[in-house]
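dumping this here so i dont lose it
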């Protein structure tokens, strides 16, 4: 019988597959433009952390592997293909972390799709999104529960990684997948898993890092929903 984390990961992979199946090919230009816009916003919001060697790798992991402008469909298909092997060699705690990472990724893309649908038509034509246009579309989605869940998931994935990397045997087991993954053409999946582990190992404790992310993203969410005139003027504290 599959454990709960295995069932959960399977559900998240199905959710991701349904998302990609419903997405037009090629990927909508406006969704790509929105991903670029939000990546620039995140880079600006966390530039101070990225300048600190202790946190630089973790910031890059969040901005490139949990959320980014690239198309994650190949990586997510990799994880689906190697799913049976993961169940055999990885402990339940790691499977649960992968499930949460998949959830935050697909939720972020779902939120992007909803927001893109609320942007003015000229944004699709020009590929340019102004901050006020973004803020209006954000409020129009009226999806605070989803936004709150996104923040909770980011904190949980980070916290789980922080705990897991303190167990050397788990990291050693993950590295055992490197050869089979490469031979099977699953390099993107392996990179994702190892990047998460390496970035949090380099921090030697992620509590302060995660607390700051939660504080800033919660403040931004509240300012956007409140319709404040300069919602992105977040303090660096």
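and the seq i came up w/
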């Amino acid at each position: 019988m599959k454990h709960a984390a295995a069932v959960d990961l399977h559900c998240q992979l199905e959710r991701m597959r349904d998302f990609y199946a419903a997405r037009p090919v090629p990927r909508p230009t406006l969704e790509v433009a929105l991903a670029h816009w939000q990546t620039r916003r995140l880079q600006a919001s966390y530039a101070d952390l990225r300048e600190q060697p202790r946190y630089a790798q973790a910031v890059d992991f969040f901005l490139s592997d949990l959320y980014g402008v690239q198309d994650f469909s190949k990586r997510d298909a990799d994880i689906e293909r190697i799913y049976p092997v993961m169940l055999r060699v990885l402990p339940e705690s790691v499977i649960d972390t992968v499930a949460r990472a998949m959830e935050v990724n697909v939720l972020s893309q779902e939120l992007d799709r909803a927001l893109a649908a609320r942007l003015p038509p000229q944004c699709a034509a020009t590929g340019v999104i102004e901050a006020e246009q973004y803020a209006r579309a954000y409020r129009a989605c009226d999806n605070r529960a989803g936004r709150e869940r996104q923040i909770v998931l980011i904190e949980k994935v980070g916290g789980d990684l922080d705990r897991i990397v303190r167990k050397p045997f788990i990291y050693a087991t993950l590295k055992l997948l490197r050869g089979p993954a490469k031979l099977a053409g699953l390099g993107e999946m392996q990179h994702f898993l190892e990047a998460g582990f390496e970035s949090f190992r380099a921090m030697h404790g992620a509590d302060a890092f995660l607390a700051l992310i939660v504080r800033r993203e919660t403040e931004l969410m509240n300012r956007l929903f409140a319709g404040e005139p300069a919602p992105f003027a977040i303090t660096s504290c």
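The chain has one domain: 4-226.
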